[in-house]
Amino acid sequence: MENSGIEQPAEKKLKEDVSTVVIPSAPGFTPPTPNSKNQLKKQKKLEQQLLQRKEKRKQEKERQKQKRREAAEKGLPVRNGPSRKDLKRRLEKVGEQENPLRIVIDLDCDDLMNERDMAKCVKQCLRIYTINRRSECPVQLHFTGIKTEGNIHRVLKKNDGWENWHLKYHFDETHLEAFDNKELIYLTSESDTVLDSLDAQNVYVIGGLVDHNHHKNYCHDRATKAGLRTARLPLGEYVDMKTRAVLTTFHVFEILVRVAEGKSWTDAILQTIPPRKGAKPKQIAGNTAENKEENVNDVGNHNTAGDTEDSNQTKDTETENSNSDKVESSDPNCNNANDGQESSKKEFIDER
């Protein structure tokens, strides 16, 4: 029997009619949207900012070129620091070194961050690259744990030219897979081991997690489970701070780079930590070579001050003795047992 003559149920016809309903576009009708009005405004604003960003960069480049032309016409230095080419050559030389200092930023934690924190994390990575590029002794920088088309990768794409940064990206590869685990040292504030010095044979890993302390001990627990060595920066050994000793990712990186340049831990920490932390050098005898030199200089200053006081006292006594001699020589009838008096008597008798 043919099914063409069989009528379909009424419920089935109603479902088909509902599925083929066209939403009218009459005036006054607004189709339902999953986002609120504020979210739609933010999306439009973000789209406008992305469109205007390239134009602003072009205008900024033109301003910088105009400033350089004016400085060249007046005979002033065009640049205060090294040029882009010089900075690029520095980073290229790092790859040619036999045993460069290697620092890794672990970005295998983008699932633990929200959109805002991921933007901050990538911004810190950009600042880390800038610090390393402008350093006198740049290190070999690695970004590991980036998931292809993941959250971090998506935010990275918003920065023009990120593919041309002079560092090593490790997509879909963690630090455990990219390096020998015996060389890895994970830097965490919860570690009991203090990092005294930097060794080019080791690979220092910094966690790229921005969570505002929501995931406590995450990096330390992850490192210990993997059987890695851990260490912490010697903040309490060299510096006293009013607040807790928790630093951002780029602060830790900057301290390591400054120490690699040859600066002491005290100078590296004080030059990096923001003033709101209230950091001051720890007053311990023989803490650093600079403190020793300051103590020696202080001792020398005290000695010179004491010498001046002694010399002043000797001058005062000499003047008093000379005055007493004058008084004694004018009065010959005085009978005292001083040498100055006897000499004055002898002179008086000779004159007589």
From TrEMBL:
Q: Which residues form the active site?
A: 211
Q: Which GO terms describe its molecular function?
A: tRNA (guanosine(9)-N1)-methyltransferase activity; tRNA binding
Q: Where is the composition biased (Basic and acidic residues)?
A: 9-18, 57-73, 312-329, 342-352
InterPro entries in the record:
MT_TRM10-typ, MT_TRM10-typ_sf, TRM10/TRM10A, tRNA_m1G_MeTrfase_euk
Residues in domain SAM-dependent MTase TRM10-type? 87-280
Where are the stretches annotated Disordered? Answer: 1-93, 276-352
- Domain of life (superkingdom): Eukaryota
In what ranges is there compositional bias, type Polar residues? 330-341
- Give EC number(s), comma-separated: 2.1.1.221
PROSITE patterns hit by this protein: SAM_MT_TRM10
Which residues make up the binding site for S-adenosyl-L-methionine? 187, 207, 219, 233
The protein's UniProt keywords, in alphabetical order, are: Methyltransferase, S-adenosyl-L-methionine, Transferase
Record-level GO BP terms? tRNA N1-guanine methylation
Q: Does the keyword Cytoplasm apply?
A: no
**A Gene Ontology term for the protein's cellular component:** nucleoplasm
- Catalytic activity, reaction form: guanosine(9) in tRNA + S-adenosyl-L-methionine = N(1)-methylguanosine(9) in tRNA + S-adenosyl-L-homocysteine + H(+)
Q: Which enzyme type, at the first EC level?
A: transferase
Cross-referenced PANTHER family, in alphabetical order? TRNA (GUANINE-9-) METHYLTRANSFERASE (PTHR13563), TRNA METHYLTRANSFERASE 10 HOMOLOG A (PTHR13563:SF13)
Q: What's this protein's name?
A: tRNA (guanine(9)-N(1))-methyltransferase
- Organism field: Musca domestica (House fly)
Q: What phylogenetic lineage does the species belong to? A: Eukaryota, Metazoa, Ecdysozoa, Arthropoda, Hexapoda
